[in-house]
Structure formats: C-alpha cells, structure tokens
Amino acid sequence: MEQKTIENITVSVRIRPLNPRELASGGEKIWENSGSAVIKDKTGVRSFIYDQVYTETTDTQEIFINQGVEVIEKCMSGYNGCIFCYGQTGSGKTHTMHGVRKTNPGVVPLSIDYIFNTVQQSSNKEFLIRCSYIEIYNESINDLLNQSLLNLQIAEDKRNGIKIIGVTEEVCTSSAQVNSLLAIGEKHKNIASTNFNQRSSRSHSIFRVIVESKNTFGCTEVAVATLNLIDLAGSESANVHGPTANSARSKEMKCINRSLLTLGTVIMRLSDKKNNAPIPYRDSKLTRLLQPALEGNSKVSIICNISPCNDAFDETLSTLKFAQRAKKIKQVIVKNDTNDSKTLIIKYEKEISELQGRLREMEE
Ligand code: ADP
Ligand code: MG
Question: Can you list the domains of the chain with their CATH numbers?
Fold first, then answer.
C-alpha cells in the first residue's frame, strides 16, 4: 500500500542578534517577533506569518527540535527530507546549519546524533547509513570528501532519482565517524579557497545522508530515503526581485550564482499554481539536485535567517518574501519502498549469508 501525505513546506524565520559591526555603527533593531509565528517591522507597516519565528535568544537546539526532528524521523521511516537555511551573507546560515560542535552544535551535527540514536534504540529495524558531502561553486559540483573529484556530473536514473556520478559515499556506523567526514569536508573547503569568506558566501554545501531501512523480521522491502542538509550561498546574490536590483548587478550576480537565482525562480513558480510556466529545475546544479525534493516527494523545512538591523532592511525584506512564497508550496510525500537488490542492506545481507554458508562448509 502506498503511503502518502500532503503537506506544506515548513518555513521558519530566525532573527539573529545585532552583530558587533551593526552595534558599532549605531544600527537599530527594527524587526521583532509578535507572538511565536509573526514578525513585524517596528513601524508595524509590514508583518508576516510563518510556522515559527525565532528570536536572538533562541538556541539552535530548540530550532532543531521544532523544525528538524520531524524531517529526520520521516527519513528514518523511508521518506525523503530536506532542511536548508536561506538568507543574506552574515545572517546566521552556517551558524544554524553547522554551529560550533561542542558548545553550540548546528542542525547538521544534531541531525546526525538523532539519526544514530534512533539506529541504536531501534530493535525491530535495521539501518544502513551512507553520507556524502559536496559543494556547488560556480556551477561546479565538487566532492568535499575527495578533493581530486571536481566538476562532477549529474545523472537521472528513473528508479533512483538524481545521482551525482562518482561522488564519494561513505557507509557510516557512528556519529563520530560522520563528524570526522564533516571535518574532512571543512578542511577541503578551506584549502580550495583563496578568500574563504567570499567563497563560502558564494558556494552551497550539501551534506547528504542516505538512509536505507528494513524491518528486521518478515518484510523484504527496503525503504531508501535521502536527507539533504544544505548551507546555501548568501541570498544577496539572487535579489532580482529586491528593491536594490538593477540589470547590471543582476547580470553579474547571475554569472556568480546561477543556482541561487534559479532556486528563487523555482520557488516562485511552484508557489504560483495559476501560472503554468515551466519550472526551470534544469537551469542550475542546485535546483537539479533538489528537484526530487522541491517537486514534491520530500518533507522540506526552510529556516530563513535575517539580521534585525535597519541597514539590512532591503535584504531582510527580500528574504521574508522568499519565505512567504515557499510557505505556499504543497508537497505530496511518498514512502520510498523498494525491492531493489542494489540497496546496500540487501547486498550486505547476501554477502553475510554467503559467508555463513562457506563457514558452515568449512566446519563440516
Ligand atoms: P552566514 O552563513 O549566513 O553568512 P554566519 O552563520 O557565518 O552567517 O554568521 C555570521 C556571524 O554571526 C558568525 O560569527 C556567527 O557566529 C554569528 N551569528 C549568526 N547567528 C547568530 C546567532 N543566532 N547567535 C549568535 N551569533 C550568531
Ligand atoms: Mg555561511
């Protein structure tokens, strides 16, 4: 029996504290929450409603519990998931997604801990977890786990969706192992860049976890779910609709970050069902990779990061409008069951039973 649910994309907003630069230049806090789901500017002229608005006193753990856990739990039972942060450079995307491991972990390490806790506590299910870590920089997909793999290509496979050809996928059995992969990825990001800040604000990084799961007893079906955890480039590269856009600037930015610009268009088209214009997933690497998620079959949680400061007003407004459009998108989420013998769980089970057979022969 096919298991389907129809849901909206979950959209939350996180307001960060004023930063030292904003404080030093006399910046004023002009955005604040009004109740748990509304954000208003101080004049009260503009107000927006989301699933949740988080203020500067909220920590990432709380955001993860409200915006992340449901996505991860769905993945553990076979539904695709996607969590990403959207906002201008310096608004807190990396702080939210990655954070600081020991003192203030972000959504990625918290998700990983949650996944392996679930694996450990589960007595009636077997799991196999694979991870990959890539960046998209100037429309090139680079493997962050193997720095010699640059400009990887995408292939579409009718059965298994969109794949990155040749990307490193590590089978992981513990949080510690995944954290060391993350550390390798971070090191490669640093090595690859001459100007780390500039590059990190213009590249997208995607930590991808593939969760194969199977009931221990009876059932032979394996559920395969993909979880995409994405730290996006700064959205100021994509403000074609913002008040600051002019054609020269948007042309320049289009070259710099086609992916983010296309993401904006894809979200706009998906949110406007009356407009039958085609959805340009194929126009960029990011949207091509996210096509299965954005098209519908994925539980999606978007965290929009903003500065509360008056001098970021235009960028913040543009982020809030992006968030509003995303909120309208409906997803039809389907469990991905398969009997495909290519799933690693099945492959490993076969290998184990062959080895057991050989062992028995040797003992006889
Ligand atoms: P982005 O990835 O959006 O460019 P960062 O996450 O790197 O921005 O954040 C910029 C700076 O602001 C970092 O020093 C980060 O630690 C700090 N910061 C961001 N959000 C918060 C927050 N909610 N609380 C405290 N510091 C934050
Ligand atoms: Mg960042």
Answer: 5-336 (3.40.850.10)
What was the ipTM of the complex prediction?
0.99
pLDDT in tens, 113-128: 999 999 999 988 999 9
Checking 157-166 for CB contacts under 8 A at 24+ apart, the result is 159/338, 159/340, 160/224, 160/340, 161/226, 161/292, 162/288, 162/289, 162/291, 162/292, 164/132, 164/134, 164/289
Residue found by looking up tokens 């939210």 in the block:
96
Pocket mutation for ligand 1, best pick of 16, 189, 257 (most atoms within 8 Å of C-beta): 16
- Whole-number Å distance, alpha carbon 356 to ligand 2 midpoint, is 49
Task: Transcribe 29-95 into DSSP letters.
Answer: B-EEESSSSEEEETTSS-EEE-SEEE-TT--HHHHIIIIIHHHHHHHHTT--EEEEEE-STTSSHHH
pTM for the full predicted model = 0.89
